[in-house]
Amino acid sequence: MANLPVNETFGLRIGALQRQRDGFLKNTQGGTYNNVDGQAYRLTARYAPTDAFNFRFSGTYDRDNTDSGGAFKSNVFLPRNQQTGAVEGDLRFWTPTHLGTFGDMAADYSQRKIVGLSGTTDLTLNERLDLTSISGYRWYKACQAGDIDGTTTNIIAYDLCNNGEQFSQELRLNIRRDGAFEGFVGASYFKASNSQQTDLGADERAMALLLSGALHRYAPNGLTNSQVNAALGSAAANYKPFHLDRRRQTADIETYDLFADGTFHLSDKLQAFVGGRLTWDDKAVSMQVTTPKSVSRLTGAALLMTLTPAGAVVRGDHSSSLATGRAGLRYQVTPTVNVYAVYGIGKRPESIDLAASGAVNILPAEKLSSAEVGIKYRLFSGALYGDASIYSFDYSNFQTFRRNGDRLEPVNAGKAKATGLETQATWRLTDSLSVFGSYAYNHARFNGGAYDGNSFRNSPDNKFALGVNAAVSTRLGELSLSPVYSWQSKIFFSDDNDRGDLQVRSRPAFSDKTVDEYQDAFGILNVRLGLTPASGPWSFAIMGENLLDKKYIVDGGNTGDSFGMPTFITGPRRTVRFEVSAHF
Question: Does domain 1-309 have CATH number 2.40.170.20?
Answer without folding.
Answer: yes
